[in-house]
Structures are given as structure tokens and as C-alpha cells.
């Protein structure tokens, strides 16, 4: 059996699932994906404001004086400050902790309430950040934003995967990463504009503007329908769930999908401790992916670009305004390539995008920091590990461990995001441009990981996903699939 075998295209047709995409689903997913815009905005805004002279002068005067007055300090070291990196990374510590709380709420009350809590936390964090008068208020605002990110990242990818028909699940779920890219670009454009406010309070606008998409998410989430998967999981009457499924799919012929949901729900009810049960051998491949994919997504070095692009551009001699505009260019490249990935993922498959994107990023990993090569890298990430890093984990877990698996995915991502955000400026100071050899090496490792260990999941119904593991050359022994259930 060849490496990475999965269901053949004609075998997918055995599932009598509707392939229609309804306006109801589109509007619901657009509202839910606003969580991605907020996540991207919070990522992009921190790197921009920390490169603004007025912001540094008010909150990080030692960094400001070193940048302006100390000619003996290398450009690579002028921004080194644990307090400055704490401003960026505090969001991800809070998100890590919040993701586990969000898992309980998602299981007990549904995906919709979790998204509402995320919106409220975003509103509180953006308000406090915009009104901050000392560094403690500033960091507390970031912590509240981290709570919002933890709840949104736990619930939104699940919501999108469960609402989407199998044939379009990749494109719809990638709407989350596409929204993240929009949020990053919005943040860099706003930073570019507010930096020009001569009074020196433009950073307040940058931090407070997160309230706009947060308001849309919070209000819009109130009107979101709950996913049929969640309704079944929480014991909703089967007839009511069927009506919701018919509305979501735009057809009365939903019995096959409903039967799979009921079967998955019955299995999930026997699993009272999902975090303990996910350690069982039969869930080994899903657990490995829940840890490996977010880990690899972070050690690509993407958040070095997302958090510190303006600072990186300043270290190579660009001015304050030019560095922010360069960040706008890289953000635009990311959005375009993510959109192309959305159009391609359900035709080319997850593995093809993962590996081709890894090759593109590897080129940048062994190069110096110049704008054109950073754009190449962002293009590779936007084509592959950016959107797929959210898509694949959200679709591979059976219902009984789905929330627990998503929480582990989010928590691992936050953990390594925090580590990289907190250590990068010090690493940049000591290793200089050689730091990117480190990230380039990881890109090679993760591309080989995908080639050998990740099966293809395109067009497979979410409640039938165990079949891809039963047919994989390596994982079939772990899940103990018998020969009659193996697929090619």
C-alpha cells in the first residue's frame, strides 16, 4: 500500500450526502469567520504599534532610547526587551488557558455560545487596550483579547467544518484562515494610517479598532444557528435536528447524514472523559496530528513575520512608515494565496498543498531577510500551512473527542506561539539573519512528515473520517481497522 493512501474519488460517492451550498450556510459561516478577522487583527496590530515611536516612548522608553540614541547597539538588538515581547505573547498564554475552558462550554452548551463569549471578550480587550495609560492596562487588555482568541479558535473551525457539506468543507473551513489574513491586512493598513497622526496617539485607534469586527461577531453570533452535530450531541430531538439539517443542506434528502450523526452521538455518549479517552491507542493518529500540525505551523516562523514584520524591516534600515508599508505588502500576498488555496483544496487535496507550500517556504528559510523572499514565504504559508493548519485538525476527530482534540490543537498552537513570540527578539539579537536557518530546517522536517504520515481527507464526510486512518499504511495498525473496512 502506497504512502498516504486515502479514499478514491469514486468511493466518496457512496455517501448519500447533499453537495449543495445554501445561502443559509454561507451567511452563517461568514459571521462565524469574523472570529478569524479578530484573530488576524490582534496578530497584526501588535507588530505595527510596537514599531511606532510614540507607542515605544510611552510604554517602553528603554527600547525607544536604545533605538534612537545608542549607536553602538546592533540593529538586531535594539528591540530586545522581555517586557515588549510580553505585550505580544501575553495574548497567547491567555488563549492557551481559555481554550480548555472553551472546550467544556462547546461540549455542554454548543458552538454558538462559545463564539458569543469570544466576541464579548474581544470587545472588552479592545476597549481596555485603546484606553491604556500604563503598561499593566495594556497587557491586561491583551490578556482579555487572548481569552477571546482562545474561545474563537476552539469553536469557529469546528463550526465551519460541521456546517459545510463534505465536498466543500475544505474551502469553507479555509474561510477562517482567509479571515485571519484579512484581519492582519486590516491591522497593517490601520497602523500605516495611524502612525502618521502627529499628535502621537494613533496607536490608541489601532488597538481600539478591534471593537468593530468584535461587535459584528458578538451581535451576529446571537442569530447563528447551532450545528446539527452539536444539536445531536447535546440530546436534541432527532426530528428537530433533521429539520435543521434540511435547512442547512437545502434538501429533504438528509437521512444518510442524520444516521451518521446519530451513530456518532451514541458513541460520544459513552465517552465521559474525552481528554482521557483521546489517549487511547485507537485515537493515536488524531492525537499525533493535534500536536504535530499546530507545532509545525508555529515553527515555520510565520508569526515572526506576523508579529514583528515592521520591526524586522526597521532592522534592515527601513524607516517607520516604509516598514509598515512593507508589512502591508506581505499581508496582501498572504490573502491572495490563501484565496487561491480555498479554490484548490477540495480538488487538489490537503497533502498536495501541504507539500508544495513547504517547498516554497523552504526557499525563504535559507535566505536573508529581504522583502521579495519574505513575500515568497508568506505565499507558501498562505497556500498551505496557514489554512490547512486549521482545516485538517478540525475535520479529523470523531464526535466523542472532537472538542477535546480541538482544544489540544489550539493549546499546542498557543504554547509554541508564546514561546516564539517571547524569545524571537532575543534570538534575533544573538543569531541575526542566521535565525532563519532554524526555521528553514523545520520546514523541511514538516514537509517530510506530511508526505509519510498524513492521509488525504478531501471529500470524506466528517463522521466517516476514521476510514482514512484504517486505509493508511502506517496508522492502520494503531486504529486496528480490519481488512473489510480498509480503503484505498
Automatic annotation (TrEMBL):
It is found in: Membrane. Keywords: Membrane, Sugar transport, Symport, Transmembrane, Transmembrane helix, Transport. It is a multi-pass membrane protein. GO terms for molecular function: monosaccharide transmembrane transporter activity; symporter activity. Pfam families: Sugar_tr. GO terms for cellular component: membrane. Residues 28-458 form the Major facilitator superfamily (MFS) profile domain. The chain crosses the membrane at residues 21-41, 83-102, 114-133, 139-160, 172-193, 205-224, 287-311, 323-345, 366-386, 406-428, 435-454. Belongs to the major facilitator superfamily. Sugar transporter (TC 2.A.1.1) family. NCBIfam families: SP. This is Major facilitator superfamily (MFS) profile domain-containing protein. The lineage of its organism: Eukaryota, Viridiplantae, Streptophyta, Embryophyta, Tracheophyta.
Amino acid at each position: 500500500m502506497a504512502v498516504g493512501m486515502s479514499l478514491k474519488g469514486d468511493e466518496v460517492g457512496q455517501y448519500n450526502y447533499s453537495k449543495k451550498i445554501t445561502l443559509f450556510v454561507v451567511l452563517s459561516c461568514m459571521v462565524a469567520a469574523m472570529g478569524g478577522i479578530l484573530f488576524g487583527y490582534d496578530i497584526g496590530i501588535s507588530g505595527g504599534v510596537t514599531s511606532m515611536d510614540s507607542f515605544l516612548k510611552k510604554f517602553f522608553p528603554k527600547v525607544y532610547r536604545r533605538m534612537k540614541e545608542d549607536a553602538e547597539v546592533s540593529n538586531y538588538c535594539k528591540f530586545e526587551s522581555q517586557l515588549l515581547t510580553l505585550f505580544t505573547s501575553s495574548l497567547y498564554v491567555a488563549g492557551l488557558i481559555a481554550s480548555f475552558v472553551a472546550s467544556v462550554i462547546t461540549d455542554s452548551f454548543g458552538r454558538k455560545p462559545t463564539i458569543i463569549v469570544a466576541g464579548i471578550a474581544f470587545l472588552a480587550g479592545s476597549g481596555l487596550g485603546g484606553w491604556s495609560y500604563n503598561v499593566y492596562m495594556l497587557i491586561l487588555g491583551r490578556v482579555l483579547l487572548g481569552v477571546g482568541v482562545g474561545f474563537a479558535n476552539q469553536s469557529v473551525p469546528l463550526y465551519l467544518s460541521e456546517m459545510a457539506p463534505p465536498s466543500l468543507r475544505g474551502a469553507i473551513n479555509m474561510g477562517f484562515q482567509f479571515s485571519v489574513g484579512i484581519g492582519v491586512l486590516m491591522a497593517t493598513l490601520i497602523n500605516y494610517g495611524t502612525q502618521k497622526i502627529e499628535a502621537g496617539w494613533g496607536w490608541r485607534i489601532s488597538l481600539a479598532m478591534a471593537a468593530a469586527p468584535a461587535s459584528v461577531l458578538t451581535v451576529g453570533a446571537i442569530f447563528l444557528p447551532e450545528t446539527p452535530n452539536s444539536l445531536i450531541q447535546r440530546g436534541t430531538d432527532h426530528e428537530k435536528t433533521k429539520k435543521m439539517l434540511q435547512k442547512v443542506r437545502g434538501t429533504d434528502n438528509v437521512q444518510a447524514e442524520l444516521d451518521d450523526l446519530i451513530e456518532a452521538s451514541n458513541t460520544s455518549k459513552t465517552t465521559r472523559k474525552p481528554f482521557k479517552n483521546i489517549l487511547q491507542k485507537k485515537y493515536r493518529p488524531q492525537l499525533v496530528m493535534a500536536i504535530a500540525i499546530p507545532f509545525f505551523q508555529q515553527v515555520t516562523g510565520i508569526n515572526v513575520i506576523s508579529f514583528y514584520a515592521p520591526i524586522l524591516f526597521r532592522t534592515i534600515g527601513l524607516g517607520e512608515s516604509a516598514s509598515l508599508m512593507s508589512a502591508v505588502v506581505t499581508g496582501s500576498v498572504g490573502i491572495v494565496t490563501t484565496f487561491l488555496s480555498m479554490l484548490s483544496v477540495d480538488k487538489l487535496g490537503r497533502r498536495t498543498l501541504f507539500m508544495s507550500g513547504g517547498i516554497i517556504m523552504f526557499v525563504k528559510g535559507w535566505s536573508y531577510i529581504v522583502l521579495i523572499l519574505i513575500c515568497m514565504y508568506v505565499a507558501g504559508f498562505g497556500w498551505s500551512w496557514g489554512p490547512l493548519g486549521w482545516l485538517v485538525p478540525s475535520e479529523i476527530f470523531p464526535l466523542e473527542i472532537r472538542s477535546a482534540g480541538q482544544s489540544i490543537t489550539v493549546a499546542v498552537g498557543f504554547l509554541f506561539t508564546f514561546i516564539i513570540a517571547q524569545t524571537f527578539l532575543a534570538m534575533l539579537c544573538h543569531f541575526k539573519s542566521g535565525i532563519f536557518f532554524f526555521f528553514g530546517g523545520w520546514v523541511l522536517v514538516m514537509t517530510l512528515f506530511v508526505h509519510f504520515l498524513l492521509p488525504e481527507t478531501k471529500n470524506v464526510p466528517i463522521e466517516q473520517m476514521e476510514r482514512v486512518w484504517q486505509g493508511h499504511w502506517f496508522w492502520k495498525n494503531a486504529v486496528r481497522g480490519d481488512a473489510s473496512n480498509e480503503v484505498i
